[in-house]
Amino acid sequence: MRFRLHGIAVAVALLTVGCASSRGKDDELRSMAPKAKKNPNVITRDELLDPAITSRDALTAIRHLRPNFFAYRGPTSTNDPTAGNTQISQDYGPLRPLSDLVAMNTFTFVEVRYLTAEQAAGRFGLRANGGPVIVLVSNKDAH
Q1: Are residues 64 and 132 in the same domain?
Q2: Which of 9, 102, 137, 138 sits 20 to 30 Å CA-CA off 24?
Q3: What digits encode the pLDDT tens for the residues 18-67?
Q4: 47-72: buried (b, 16+ CB within 10 Å) or exposed (e) per residue?
């Protein structure tokens, strides 16, 4: 009888340990699962709504979220010192200087897209002036 109770206690203990280690392995596997990768050329609405971001001006917010948008690529023209500079466009409208971002916040944007110099030339033609463009896509309902 005593042996039988001892055997049952050991079996229950092994079962408990097995379940706990199984749960631990599940948690470990879940934490190892690939996380959704951020698109290096797009800032999403969710990222823009982060409380640490919404209190900043658009230039600071974008620079914090995607510093690569502002990487210096060197001069592209000896005749035009502004050639190759990053510009901005709101809703694919007219191109504006990057400095305009300081006066903007991110509340009305649903996403921010980075267009390479080649993509910008395809979209804006010669107005892109050989440089990349940051496109601010607005929330039409916010106006």
Answers
A1: yes
A2: 9
A3: 555 445 555 555 555 556 688 999 999 999 999 989 889 999 999 999 99
A4: bbeeeebeebebbebbeebbeebeee
Tokens linked to 85: 């500079």
pLDDT reported for residue 142 = 47
Task: Quote the CA–CA distance of 58 and 104 in Å, as a whole number.
Answer: 5
Single-letter amino acid, residue 75: P
25 with 59, same domain: the answer is no
Print the domain residue range for 16.
1-33
26 and 4 within one domain: yes
| pLDDT tens string 111-137 | 999 999 999 999 999 889 888 999 999
DSSP string, the chain: -HHHHHHHHHHHHHHHHHHHHHHHHHHHHHHHSPPPPPPTTEEEHHHHT-HHHHTS-HHHHHHHH-GGGG-----S-SS-TTTT--EEEETT-SEEEGGGGGG--STTEEEEEEE-HHHHHHHHGGGGTTS-EEEEEE-GGG-
Tell whether 25 and 74 lie within a shared domain.
no
